[in-house]
Amino acid sequence: MENLRKLARGQKALMALLTWARQTGWDVHRTSGGHVKFTKPGCGPVYTSFTPGDHRAVRNARALLRRCGKKDAE
Distance between CA 63 and CA 74 in Å, rounded? Predict the structure, then answer.
């Protein structure tokens, strides 16, 4: 969990997304450009901004990860 805290660096909404993603099998990495990269075997990489521009950004990222995970399950 410490690794996720270091990755989120005070972004509460992002911390919740990172925790959920790890629990559902996604690997989470920080890119050199300041974005967050989610990877999972069988799925393409998903990128999101570290500092979301609007209040829906974290929800949109979670929905995209869910959709990618469903494609993997089929």
Answer: 17
CB 21 within 8 A of CB 65: yes
d(CA 74, CA 61): 21
Which pTM value belongs to this model?
0.80
pLDDT for position 25: 92
Let me know: does 7 contact 36? Beta carbons within 8 Å: yes
2 φ/ψ angles, rounded to the nearest 5 degrees: -60, -40
Per domain, the residue ranges of the chain are: 2-73
Write down the CATH number for the domain with range 2-73: 3.30.920
Q: Cβ distance 36 to 43 under 8 Å?
A: no
**If you count them, how many residues does the chain have?**
74
Tell me the pLDDT tens digit for each residue of 25-35: 999 998 888 88
Helix (H, G, I), strand (E, B) or coil at 45: strand
